[in-house]
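Re: flavin mononucleotide structure - here you go.
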Amino acid sequence: MKEIFKRRSIRKYSKLPISDSDIENLLRAAMAAPSAGNQQPWEFILIEDKNILADITKVHPYSQMLKEAQLAIVVCADLDKEKLSGYWVQDCSAATENILIESQYLGLGSVWLGVYPREDRVKGIKELLNLPVRVLPLSIVSLGYPAEKKEPSNRYDKSRIHINKW
Ligand SMILES: Cc1cc2nc3c(=O)[nH]c(=O)nc-3n(C[C@H](O)[C@H](O)[C@H](O)COP(=O)(O)O)c2cc1C
């Protein structure tokens, strides 16, 4: 649980590369996520190529940290893999959050970059990464060893809790 409570968005990274075994662990965590009817509609694109990372910053306005990142994982859904229509966003969000928590466990820094439902970002990423028509990008996780430190943020708010009825 301490990974969940310590996690913050990290947007500055050192030049240390991420090992292949850590990358595998990030993807194992992603694919351990729950999904509607266990449909697992996700597909993951790993990007280490600095030119492609820089190209993403041209189609996603809030992704400038990718210029320093060692790795980006683009979390996509293959709509042909959906058995229960419409749940792909929740499935791929659960996978994205698992990557963030695993990255915290591994001592990496990461930040979730939202793509879907912003149409311009979806279109830009689809074109840039040659995604088939049936594949939609939900998010991008930017990763690297942290070059900034952030304190945990306590957002526990009792007023948001409703017992039995609103
Ligand atoms: C759906 C979603 C989309 C986000 N998109 C971006 C983004 O495009 N760029 C960015 O720098 N951070 C993005 N974030 C990170 C949030 O800004 C961040 O999680 C929030 O400010 C809380 O801070 P914390 O993650 O450090 O706890 C996104 C987070 C979520 C969940």
